[in-house]
Amino acid sequence: RGRAKPRKPRKPPSTFIAKAPNQVWTWDITYLPSSVKGLYYYLYLVEDIYSSKGVAWEVHESESGEYAATLMQRAMLREQCFSRPPVLHSDNGAPMKSQTLRAKLHDLGIQPSHSRPRVSNDNPYSESLFRTVKYNPDWPSKGFASLDEARHWVEGFMQWYNHEHLHSGIKYVTPADRHDGKDVAILSARDKVQRLARERNPLRWTGKTRNWAPIGSVALNPQKENLANDIAA
């Protein structure tokens, strides 16, 4: 018998830094229970990690690389970022690694990134957003009666999430405001109000005031254990 070849050191995962919207996206699929036991619908959702905005979503009756490819095409059309395509991170599910999706990403110029095998928390942005979906007070506890009902509910949720939800991970502005670059002015105005209030009533402000500076760049690096910090929705 020949000598066993020494194992090659595992290449560390790439780090991607989002300094602006549409530089790094993450996506995943989660199940939506129907009112029929054992029957599920599937929510496909693409999120921008810089702004936490959902940039594209669809609900289907199955998991499919074809559906995923169509969703990515629509996401690019909606965001109009063909000249500088984003990195797209996902786990290693069958739709994520399908030839149909790979071909579409190649055509669009999107660089794919995948979680490490057998590492459960390598896609924390999508996981966090899915928790926000399913812990919403309006979540139908008895399941969705139909595909149309599931699609209608998700559409309403995403409009609320993107345009009304004050996201704790981005200093309590909406994902849409952060995505559109409005967060700087909003946070500056809050800081000004806070400083004026402290000047008028200094005795009421004994501790540190809240830091309203924008959060800046956002990193995607599955190698770091603390990646999930500060991204709770």
From TrEMBL:
<dbReference type="GO" id="GO:0003676">
    <property type="term" value="F:nucleic acid binding"/>
</dbReference>
<protein>
    <submittedName>
        <fullName>IS3 family transposase</fullName>
    </submittedName>
</protein>
<dbReference type="InterPro" id="IPR012337">
    <property type="entry name" value="RNaseH-like_sf"/>
</dbReference>
<dbReference type="GO" id="GO:0015074">
    <property type="term" value="P:DNA integration"/>
</dbReference>
<dbReference type="InterPro" id="IPR050900">
    <property type="entry name" value="Transposase_IS3/IS150/IS904"/>
</dbReference>
<dbReference type="InterPro" id="IPR036397">
    <property type="entry name" value="RNaseH_sf"/>
</dbReference>
<dbReference type="InterPro" id="IPR001584">
    <property type="entry name" value="Integrase_cat-core"/>
</dbReference>
<dbReference type="Pfam" id="PF00665">
    <property type="entry name" value="rve"/>
</dbReference>
<feature type="domain" description="Integrase catalytic">
    <location>
        <begin position="17"/>
        <end position="183"/>
    </location>
</feature>
<dbReference type="InterPro" id="IPR048020">
    <property type="entry name" value="Transpos_IS3"/>
</dbReference>
